[in-house]
Amino acid sequence: MINWENVLATVFRERKNELVAVSDIDFVDINSLLGIETQKEQLLENTQKFIDSKEANHVLLWGERGCGKSSLVKAVFTKFYTKGLRVIEIGCDDLRFLPEIIDEIRKSEFKFIIFCDDMSFEDGSKEYKFLKPIMEGSIQKPPKNVLIYATSNRRHLLSEYKSDNVSTLVSQDEIHYSDATQEKISLSDRFGLWISFYQGSFNDYLKIVDFYFKDYTGDKEKLHELAKNYATLRASRSGRTAKQFYIAFKDSFK
């Protein structure tokens, strides 16, 4: 049994079939996340309502890779954990264990974010079914102290492989989904708040680079040129790419 008074975050380990306390939490300062001001405002507002015991939505953060989806969830947790917010991270393949986890925390005085990073469902996957009772209830009401925050590269949480959607047909320019595919799409509709993430312009990318190199007083033009080349080679202008550039070249620009 987890002592949530002392434990701030846990991860579910299938081999142990239990929640394991996180000892080295990756706290993220929300002010360090640049270029996603609208997304920050949306998630902060929703989480504040949750903390205040007002109605709040389950959240799907979706969009391009490396644009800050997971970091934003961790930053919001960092901001609110002193107000009784706790996080349980669970893998997409382990969602079948959610009912037991919810039974354990339903009557807790703390508020919980169930965090599922990179949520998506391949052909034949049935784990998504275990989310419905938590998000909409069954014969038992959904818990008031639990929200699902999930990240995904896919808005509808579906596989992008043709073989995984062979029963989805197009006739007379209309899309006809199979029952299974339609059920998966309806899952994303149960998230009351969708927050989208996109790569910004090179100027947005360079602002993030400048944030990481804020102590550098040398030739900014040279720094920016190298940063642009790095982004071009990786075909990405995301915040993740800016951070990777900083790690790779910070010793060269002291």
TrEMBL record:
Pfam families: DUF815 (PF05673). Residues 55-181 form the AAA+ ATPase domain. InterPro entries: AAA+_ATPase, DUF815, P-loop_NTPase. Gene3D superfamilies: P-loop containing nucleotide triphosphate hydrolases. Keywords: ATP-binding, Nucleotide-binding. GO terms for molecular function: ATP binding. SMART domains: AAA. This is ATP-binding protein. It comes from Campylobacter californiensis.
